[in-house]
Each structure stands twice: as C-alpha cells, then as structure tokens.
Amino acid sequence: MSEKTGIPYSVVDLATAPNYYEYDLSAARTDFGCNPQLSIFDMVDEAIRYNEEGGGTIIPTKVQIS
Q1: What is the pLDDT along the chain (66 residues), one digit of tens a residue?
Q2: Which of 1, 28, 40, 47 is most buried, judging by how many CB atoms fall within 10 Å of its CB?
Q3: Are 38 and 31 in contact (CB under 8 A)?
Q4: Total of domains in the chain
Q5: Is 37 a domain residue?
C-alpha cells in the first residue's frame, strides 16, 4: 500500500506482546454465502483510483432516480 500511495511507513518493534489479527471471511461465507471476487490488492487499487478520480468502477457512486 505504501508503494502504491507513496506514503512512507515504519516498522516498530514493541516491547509488549502484540495482538495479531487475520483477515478471515469464513463466517461471512458460512453465514451469508459471501464469496468476494476482489483481492485486497484490487480493493487498494480501487481506493486509490477513487481518491484520484473522484469515482470508482467497482462500487458505483452515482444514484439514478427513476
């Protein structure tokens, strides 16, 4: 993400025991039948595109009233 955005990052070694969090969609798949088609990389690219262009292609941002 840092490479794509040009925002620097730091690595910090903490003296305490860190908490680890994992990206886990198993409950969403089991409970709701969710089957995402996008990778985390696709989502980062879309967020960057949205910020640069003011709109995206994955999530429509214009509402049509009929």
Answers
A1: 889 888 899 988 878 877 777 778 888 889 999 888 888 888 888 888 888 887 666 666 666 676
A2: 47
A3: no
A4: 1
A5: yes
Query: For residue 31, what pLDDT is reported?
Result: 93
> Which of 13, 40, 36, 16 lies closest to 26, judged by CA?
36
| Contact (CB, 8 A) for 59 and 46 | yes
**Per the domain annotation, does 10 fall within a domain?**
yes
49 vs 2, 5, 64, CA distance in Å?
15, 10, 22
Is the residue at 64 inside a domain? Answer: no
Q: How many residues does the chain have?
A: 66
- The domain containing residue 23 runs over which residues? 2-53
| 15 in a structural domain | yes
Give the pTM: 0.51
Neighbours of 46 (CB within 10 A): 15
